[in-house]
Amino acid sequence: MADRAEYARKGIARGRSLVVLQYADGIVFVGENPSRALHKFSEIYDRIGFAAAGKYNEYENLRIGGVRYADLRGYTYDRDDVTARGLANVYAQTLGTIFSSAGEKPYEVELVVAEVGATAAGDQIYRLPHDGSIVDEHGSVAVGGNAEQISTFLDQRHRDGMTLAEALKLAVQALSSQANGADKAIPAERLEVAVLDRTRAQQRKFKRIRGRQLARLLEADVPAAAQADAVSNDEAPEDDAE
């Protein structure tokens, strides 16, 4: 079992890290991802988002399974019955079964399932390592190859009530930090950013941030009015939820 755990951890470590942060109006997902088609972050249901680090084909299978679970449960019972905690339990069972099975290799993935609440107190963030355990996180979480160092960076600097621009800049700084002290620059075109925004009028709270929106938020000094304008729902339709 120790060898299987080490195998999974090494596979995850080869992938790029990502971070998930709470901010005043919701939860933001930030990661370095040069691909425009293979996403690390996705919408699962109305208020639930999914993030993953590791092997794409493995976490994509898990994402699709999560969407099917959420759709079936929401259709059979009620949309409010689909929760991040329930989804995390399903993922934990799947990952735990695969990890303990002698007939197949463990999945080289680490997941984050997040749900935005009506208030910040209702936000939920769950981290699921390769072995199927569930870790209830608050404020910020990092997964992937450099997760321990990034988590330490975030723990020292993240605070409740941050604006989206502040949280985004902090996430980019954390992802850019290096163990040797020489930070690397991550251009906006290599960033994948998405939010669960509780202020959206739509039932679905997931939204991707890219293009001009992302560039404005990454500017050195973004006033509150500009930040609000950057995430308005009147932007180009291709930046909206999937």
UniProtKB/TrEMBL annotation:
Keyword field: Cytoplasm, Proteasome
GO MF: threonine-type endopeptidase activity
InterPro entries the record matches: Ntn_hydrolases_N, Proteasome_alpha, Proteasome_alpha-type, Proteasome_asu_bac, Proteasome_sua/b
Bilayer-crossing regions: none
Coiled coil: none
Any one Gene Ontology BP term: proteasomal protein catabolic process
Recorded GO CC terms: proteasome core complex, alpha-subunit complex
Record's keyword annotation contains GTP-binding: no
SUPFAM superfamilies per the UniProt record, alphabetical: N-terminal nucleophile aminohydrolases (Ntn hydrolases) (SSF56235)
UniProt key word Cytoplasm: yes
Protein family membership: Belongs to the peptidase T1A family.
Protein name, UniProt field: Proteasome subunit alpha
Organism whose genome encodes this protein: Streptomyces subrutilus
